[in-house]
Amino acid sequence: MSTEAAAIALQDHAALWSMGEIRASDVVNAACDALVAGLDTAGLRILAGCTRAEADYDVHDLLPAALEELDLAFYPIGSEAGQEAVARALARRMLTGELTPWEFTFRIHQRHGHGLPLTERLAELDDEYDILEYGDRTVNQVDAEVTAEARRLAAHPTVPAEPTDSRR
User: Fold this and answer.
1) Which H or E run contains 152?
2) Residue 135 main-chain phi, psi, to 5 deg
3) Do the beta carbons of residue 10 and residue 31 sit within 8 Å?
4) What is the pTM of this model?
5) Which long-range contacts (C-beta less than 8 Å, at least 24 apart) are formed by 145-149?
6) Cα(154)–Cα(88) distance, rounded to whole angstroms?
7) Does residue 166 form part of some domain?
8) Which residues of the chain are under the pLDDT cut of 50?
9) The domain containing residue 43 runs over which residues?
10) Of 17, 38, 69, which closes a domain?
11) Under a CB-based contact definition with an 8 Å cutoff, are residues 7 and 44 in contact?
């Protein structure tokens, strides 16, 4: 894994964790992967050194500093920028085969409904999966459109994090 790919993966894990999508131990694993890929800062080493038992308690305090050292964003819980970062992270997961197109749209729709402008089309496509048997579209057609939307999201520029005091 390149250092750029490791940084993107760590950023994705941080966003997913901050929005409750993954466990803290997954963030620690991403920090370990980032170290192996060649990223190296004091904060990243400390984060990567957490045990599973420590992760649930320590990631909250360690992650913001580790990300700052790497010039990556920490998204405050519930922030729109964080929600958009999660959508982009899930899009990348779909494109690598970790999620099916339907699972991707379902998770986006379930989390944001039709309320997040960046993912509105995905919520509409999730609705289309529900009515396929009544319309003239096929699963493959909807999957193709979901894949195109995932590519658009994955390529979408990263939104800067909202200001936060991470030392609290």
Assistant:
1) helix 139-155
2) -110, -165
3) yes
4) 0.83
5) 146/94, 146/101, 146/102, 146/104, 146/105, 146/122, 147/94, 147/95, 147/101, 149/91, 149/121, 149/122, 149/125
6) 5
7) no
8) 159-168
9) 3-69
10) 69
11) no
Q: Cα–Cα distance between 149 and 135 in angstroms, integer?
A: 21
Return the residue matching tokens 């997040």.
Answer: 116
Amino acid at 26: D
pLDDT for the residue 165:
42
- Determine the pLDDT at residue 155: 87
List C-alpha distances in Å: 42 to 22, 97, 103.
24, 33, 37
Structure token digits, residue 90:
């899930």
Instruction: Report yes or no: 118 and 152 within 8 Å, Cβ to Cβ.
Output: no
3-state secondary structure of 73: coil
- What is the model's pLDDT at position 167? 37
Domain assignment present for 75: no
Judgement on whether residues 65 and 88 belong to the same structural domain of the protein:
no
Domain count, the chain: 2
Residue 20 backbone class (left: φ over 0; alpha: ψ -120 to 50; beta: rest): left
Alpha-carbon dihedral angle through residues 63, 157, 95, 124, given to the nearest 10 degrees? 110
Q: Are residues 58 and 94 in the same domain?
A: no
- Number of residues assigned to the chain: 168
What's the longest Cα–Cα distance across the chain?
57
